[in-house]
Amino acid sequence: MAADSDSKKVLEYKERVKKQAEELVLKDFPRKIVILDELLKTSDFNKPNLEDVHETLNIPVPEPIQLNSHSEPVSKRWKSEKMDDIAGTKVMALINGSVPCNKNLCNLVTKVKPHVRQLVEDSNVLKMWVSFLIPKIEDGNNFGVSIQEDTLAEIQSVESEAAAFYDQISRYFLTRGKIVSKVAKYPHIEDYRRAVEELDEKEYLSLMLVLCEKATIKGSKSAGVTLLSVVMTAAVIGNAFYQKKQFYPSVVYITKSNPCMAVMYIQAFVMVILMGKLMRKVFFGQLRAAEFEHLMERSWYAVTETCLAFTVFRDDFSPKFVALFTVLLFLKSFHWLAEDRVDFMERSPVISWLFHIRVIALLSVLGYMDYLFVGHAYQSTVTKGASVQLVFGFEYAILLTIICNIAIKYVLHTVDLQSDNPWENKAVFLLYTELAMGFVKVVLYVTFVAIMVRIYTLPLFAFRPMYYTMRAFNKAFNDVILSRRAIRNMNTLYPDATPEELSAADNVCIICREEMVTASKKLPCNHIFHTSCLRSWFQRQQTCPTCRLNILQTPPVTQQQQQAANNNAAPPPAQPVAAPAGAMPQGAMPPNPFMMMGNNLWPPFQVPPAAPQPPAGTAAPSGATPANGSTSAPQAPFTPQAGPSSASAAGTATNPFLCMRFPMLPFMVPPPLPPRDFTGLSEEELQNLEGTTREAIEARIRTMRQIVMMLDCASVMASQITAIIPPSYPTATPASQPANSEDAGSAPTEPQPSTSSDAPPTSLVNQTENSTAAPSAQEAEQSNPSMPERSGSPSTSAMNSEQEEIRRRRLQKFSSQSPDNPQADNTSNEH
Amino acid sequence: MAGSALRRLMAEYKQLTLNPPEGIIAGPINEENFFEWEALITGPEGTCFEGGVFPAKLIFPPDYPLSPPKMQFTCEMFHPNIYSDGRVCISILHAPGDDPMGYESSAERWSPVQSVEKILLSVVSMLAGCFEPIYYLNATEPNDESGANVDAAKMWRENREEFNKIAERLVRRTLGLPP
């Protein structure tokens, strides 16, 4: 209950604060502004001549005591000896009584102080109010919260400023007291008296500023600052003119006086900001939150770099220099905004005419300005020799390249927007633009740094942008290379999807979720995408978006090879598969089942046990393991090709590389070989192999699959051997391989009937199609048929004749390919 | 023709509006900016998050769908895979090659095949707790000292009751009920 009543009280308090604050904002502040404005108008604050503020110091110049006369040398100890008998603290005597404070200023201080105190209190209330409100607006969107946080920070700064003002008052009196005491001590030195006057003047100015500032904070901040600076400038100029009566002397007066110059600088700064606001309104309208954030972030970097640049050119430091840098910063920020705006075109659903007009106008204005400044810098460097203008020249040249880049982007986006179909080549153009501009920028930066090092010193301020430019250039370069490779692969390796293929599947490109009508490509894994979508994806990743088949790792299946494979693959599935096809999916027969297989089993392929198991004595290899081994085997020789692909691709490829390479060495793993005879099989199993029942056929298929697996292993080992043995000993390959297979072959295999068969049997025929790498494969294969020959059923004999046919073709192909084969394997393994 | 990212986002929005998956609502906060979405996810039934409605924010990159979006819960969450500031840490939200430690295989990373719907469904199943809390995901954000919520992971492992209690409190809070 206690907690309840407490929370109620807190709520009440919250309400009260809210009400108070709202009242403050709605009523008190406007009233305060009026009061402060009136106060500013009173005679106290409106002294046209700052000399009126001065207060005469009633410290007379006393008669000099001639301590250093030659006639009467006085020892230094005289003073102390004389004064020894006086008790108490020694005090400087001031004949005319105490020195008063500056009455005018004291008056002002007493007038301003209550306002300042009020301000501190008000800001405290406001702070609380805003923090109470934050969660309330939070559930709207984040923008409101950020505004609130900004406001909070603003109020806090006001509060601290007010506190600082208190400090300032006491500091003023302290300083004044010190100087007055000096005056008292050394009444003859006129400068000290002058210092008091100056101090009074300064305090007057700052008091006025404090008051103005308060007025500003309470009114609209920026408008207040603007008004204030204008008023102050007018006051300063008016004052100067009033005093000096003529133009030239008043200018001299203003430039000689630091406070006046400060006012002028503030005015100039305000003008720049106003100008920026105007241009923003004209060219951009309202800035989006993201744009504003970008701008702030970048301008901080720019400001720091400018400060660094100041250190290099401290000798040339002058108002003109500062002004030029301000202009540079100003223009730079507009370049950034223009860049953001043009990038936004791609993301905006509607682009109005106003947008186009604004962008074109802005780009031309900025481009012209850059051009002018570059020309000016060049002229000045040529005529006057190297100076700060060098920096400006380079900066503007860089900005000019940025403008070019933006303009090209803008044109590309506009052309793209005009057409109804996506423009495929846009990405390529953008990429090359990026590359070219990056190159120009890098060249510019390098030249700039080189020149700077020669003439001045190391330009620290140029390093950060230079680094980023180089990184961007490097990225663009890599992008172009990757993109080119992707495009080349797509154009040469992958066929265009035919209309039948498109209509067969659901013809939506999974990347852009739009229908594919034309310009689509089919990857080796049979997935179909828009050419343009694929290309942009391949710039990032060289994998199939759907199944992540690494397209750079897959063997470059040339058209001819593929054709051959397809020709070979086409007939076999017809009969042998059709027979046991009861459980097999028949309709969805992928045109290139080998690739499909490799890809379906891609994830298990990355798992270490993918290495084929020695079949000797394996009691019950489940259906998955042989399938696993058989599919991984043909992939194995290709895995080392991961090397040339990009870093990311290499990362994914490291695992298979490591686990495949070593276990696959022929010296470590005995190669599995088919049984020479069927002594190892029981009667029942032999019966299972024959007959026309489904079990019998399945058993046969399993046996065949094991054979296929062994063949694949043999071919893998052969390629491994060719990789390990230097090409100078080509004869070693056939010699070592059969020997090995002989050794392992002595262990008879037991093809065990397994319960599941998840890989379509078509794969096995195609597997054999593709495992053509080594002669040993042929030899092993030739020793195989003993098994199928024994079975007398019609379906196996059909399969047999089929195999005969396949072998014949493969021998043909092998004889035509074998000369280059070891070499090809070799190069691929070296990576 | 507008940018491909925009078109794809519009297509996904349409798809989500026409066939909304159960327990998920998502759409752009503002139709003028399709790159910031808001999603409402209802806690899966039979879990400690049952009944809760959790608001989240999705920020899409300009090159979506080539890069993954970022997802952040805008309410308080307590889950091993959600950072204390609400950012969601699941592998399909990580671009391939993002993870220098190589903890996640690229098969479960972002690819253009993924969609807003799939992301949200994965988040639902993440809330349902079918995933073991994955500590190593912290590795993807090395500069965040808090990491994905380690406290939550620890509690999930060691003190499930307490975890459920906290989750229930969060659910009540999202519904505006007193704790």
From TrEMBL, chain A:
Please verify whether the record's keywords include GTP-binding. Answer: no
Q: Which Pfam families match?
A: PA28_C, PA28_N, TPR_SYVN1_N, zf-RING_2
Q: Which reaction does it catalyse?
A: S-ubiquitinyl-[E2 ubiquitin-conjugating enzyme]-L-cysteine + [acceptor protein]-L-lysine = [E2 ubiquitin-conjugating enzyme]-L-cysteine + N(6)-ubiquitinyl-[acceptor protein]-L-lysine
Pro residues composition-biased segments: 605-615
Q: What are the recorded Gene Ontology BP terms? A: ERAD pathway; proteasome-mediated ubiquitin-dependent protein catabolic process
Alphabetically sorted, this entry's keywords are: Endoplasmic reticulum, Membrane, Metal-binding, Proteasome, Transferase, Transmembrane, Transmembrane helix, Ubl conjugation pathway, Zinc, Zinc-finger
Q: What sequence ranges are listed for the domain RING-type?
A: 509-548
**Compositional bias ranges of the Low complexity kind:** 558-569, 576-585, 616-627, 639-650
The way this protein sits in the membrane is described as: Multi-pass membrane protein
Q: Where is the composition biased (Polar residues)?
A: 730-740, 752-801, 813-831
Q: CDD domains, per this entry?
A: RING-H2_synoviolin
Annotated family:
Belongs to the HRD1 family.
**Protein's job:** Implicated in immunoproteasome assembly and required for efficient antigen processing. The PA28 activator complex enhances the generation of class I binding peptides by altering the cleavage pattern of the proteasome.
**Protein name as annotated:** RING-type E3 ubiquitin transferase
From TrEMBL, chain B:
Q: Which PROSITE patterns match?
A: UBC_1, UBC_2
Residues at the active site: 89
The record, for InterPro entries, names: Ub_conjugating_enzyme (IPR050113), UBC (IPR000608), UBQ-conjugating_AS (IPR023313), UBQ-conjugating_enzyme/RWD (IPR016135)
Source domain of life is Eukaryota
Name any Gene Ontology BP term: ERAD pathway
Q: What class of enzyme is it?
A: transferase
Residue limits of the UBC core domain? 4-176
Keywords from the UniProt entry: ATP-binding, Nucleotide-binding, Transferase, Ubl conjugation pathway
Molecular function (Gene Ontology), one example: ubiquitin conjugating enzyme activity
Catalytic activity, EC: 2.3.2.23
Q: What SMART domains has UniProt attached to this entry?
A: UBCc
A Pfam family that the UniProt record links to this protein: UQ_con
Q: Which reaction does it catalyse?
A: S-ubiquitinyl-[E1 ubiquitin-activating enzyme]-L-cysteine + [E2 ubiquitin-conjugating enzyme]-L-cysteine = [E1 ubiquitin-activating enzyme]-L-cysteine + S-ubiquitinyl-[E2 ubiquitin-conjugating enzyme]-L-cysteine
What does the subunit section of this Swiss-Prot or TrEMBL entry state?
Answer: Interacts with AUP1 (via C-terminus); the interaction recruits UBE2G2 to lipid droplets. Interacts with ubiquitin ligases AMFR/gp78 and RNF139/TRC8; recruitment to lipid droplets by AUP1 facilitates interaction of UBE2G2 with AMFR and RNF139, leading to sterol-induced ubiquitination of 3-hydroxy-3-methylglutaryl coenzyme A reductase and its subsequent proteasomal degradation.
Function according to Swiss-Prot or TrEMBL? Accepts ubiquitin from the E1 complex and catalyzes its covalent attachment to other proteins. In vitro catalyzes 'Lys-48'-linked polyubiquitination. Involved in endoplasmic reticulum-associated degradation (ERAD). Required for sterol-induced ubiquitination of 3-hydroxy-3-methylglutaryl coenzyme A reductase and its subsequent proteasomal degradation.
Q: Belongs to which family?
A: Belongs to the ubiquitin-conjugating enzyme family.
Name used for this protein in its record:
Ubiquitin-conjugating enzyme E2 G2
From which organism does this entry originate?
A: Cloeon dipterum
Q: What is the lineage of its organism?
A: Eukaryota, Metazoa, Ecdysozoa, Arthropoda, Hexapoda
